[in-house]
Amino acid sequence: MNEKHDYRIFSQLLIDLPAMNNANSSAPKVLVIFGTRPEAIKLFPVVRALSAQPALRTVTCVTAQHRQMLDQVLDIAEIRPDHDLDLMRADQSLDELTTRLLQGIGKTLDAVQPQRIIVQGDTATAMCGALAAYYRQIPVSHVEAGLRSYNIYHPWPEEVNRKIIGTIADQHFAPTETSAEALRSENIPENQISITGNTVIDALLVTAEKVGKDIALNPELTALLGRFADRKIIGVTSHRRENFGDGLNQISAALRNIAARDDVALIFPIHLNPNVRAVMNNALGGLDNVAMIEPLDYPNFVGLLGACHFMLTDSGGVQEEAPALGKPVLVMRNTTERPEGVEAGTAKLVGTDPDLIETEACRLLDEQDYYDSMARAHNPFGDGKSSERIADIVAASLTR
Ligand code: UD1
Ligand code: UDP
Fold it and tell me: Can you give the residue ranges of the UDP-N-acetylglucosamine 2-epimerase domain (predicted)?
């Protein structure tokens, strides 16, 4: 892993978290359940906003579906979970993971007895959190509701996870009008839908403001940015389960072809999923201008987003963050549940066909007008105040 940083300095600068559980012991309890890196990034501002609500008690439960990648965010956000189920196993299958999650979260719900739970997004943790709460008739709030690709195998299993959560939840925090409209078309009552923006923009803005000023990038990333200063840097991430096998092989072939150019460098913080690592190490190991590094903590990843020429990714969160920083994104998927970036022209779907990925990457590298048309900072996903809106709605529903 990267050199351990002094996270106390980061967190003082970054988060300034109000005291947790800042209400009296008879106040209603809201349990925030999360387990992976993106959920933690998108929920730390929500936990912060909830903790500032005097009429609530905020309790946190991490499933640790991810371990190291979750802990990177917990450290920086200075969240010490009240419950840590420590569920991750190496190379876990979906059915094993789901079983452990359902049982572990169920026991936690029985112990905590919250008046409401909050889940985010579309992971196995979020789906099992909603289901375990439903089995106990505890109401569910869904952060980042209404994203739909309308293809249950892309992304897989996330499209079905979020539909299950959508069926159970009675508070749907839709990031955009498009996601709200998807919920309406599924007959979710209007009074259960709130367009709040996506909390990832809250996390991004508070972090980006500090990076490079109050927070220095880590020595490894700093050295790489120096070493590649005369090249165009392409930031890369890839981890989708539906791409395992042919898809990842094709992506790795495309990256190898792009790296054959002498004017580019690829910085690729590799997801800890062993299925991703094996393929990428085989295809890209030993190339001087491809830096495969350990997952970056959030401020350093935001630093990479700021420094790169563009991003090549299959990540959901990166599709939301890059446009906010004016970075073009080539999305290595056939569909997206986040059409806003594509519609605005800052993101483009390139699938996993190696020729198309390479062609589109070369257009961004070679055609300045084309690059400029995609490199416009805009924020279709939020204004940085989503978490406060969510906390206000949750508090109002529990205290009226
Ligand atoms: C999960 C989510 C996916 C989300 C992604 C974010 C599901 C089914 N998938 O996919 O929606 O986009 O997280 O990254 O919920 N591992 C580690 N350490 C870590 C994290 C992962 O070693 O900190 C390895 C383990 O071997 C683990 C494997 O990665 O078994 C897969 O983790 P898992 O959470 O099941 O799936 P992801 O592919 O990470
Ligand atoms: N991210 C990070 N370090 C990395 C790669 C990504 O902090 O090395 C952040 C990124 O900024 C985004 C989130 O992790 O907020 C995306 O997570 P991931 O791609 O694992 O999941 P997805 O968004 O696809 O569910």
Answer: 49-394
pLDDT averaged over the chain? 93
Mutate to test the pocket of ligand 2, among 294, 318, 336 (most ligand atoms within 8 A of CB): 318
Residue nearest to atom 14 of ligand 1 (CA): 37
Looking at domain 4-198+383-399, which CATH architecture does it have?
Answer: 3-Layer(aba) Sandwich (3.40)
User: Domain map of the chain by residue range?
Assistant: 4-198+383-399, 218-375
Report field, pTM of the whole predicted structure over 0.90: yes
**Superfamily, domain 218-375:** Glycogen Phosphorylase B; (3.40.50.2000)
> Can you list the positions of beta strands (E) in 107-263?
116-120, 140-143, 171-174, 193-195, 232-237
Q: Are domains 4-198+383-399 and 218-375 of this chain identical in fold?
A: yes
Average pLDDT over residues 174-203: 98
| Cα–Cα dist 105/333, whole Å | 32
Query: Does residue 100 contact residue 121 with C-beta atoms inside 8 Å?
Result: no
- Among 2, 10, 34, 37, which is best to mutate for testing ligand 2, by the most ligand atoms less than 8 A from CB? 37
| Token output for 33 | 């359940």
pLDDT, tens digit (0-9, with 9 covering 90-100), for 80-94: 999 999 999 999 999
Query: What are the pLDDT digits (tens) for 269-304?
Result: 999 999 999 999 999 999 999 999 999 999 999 999
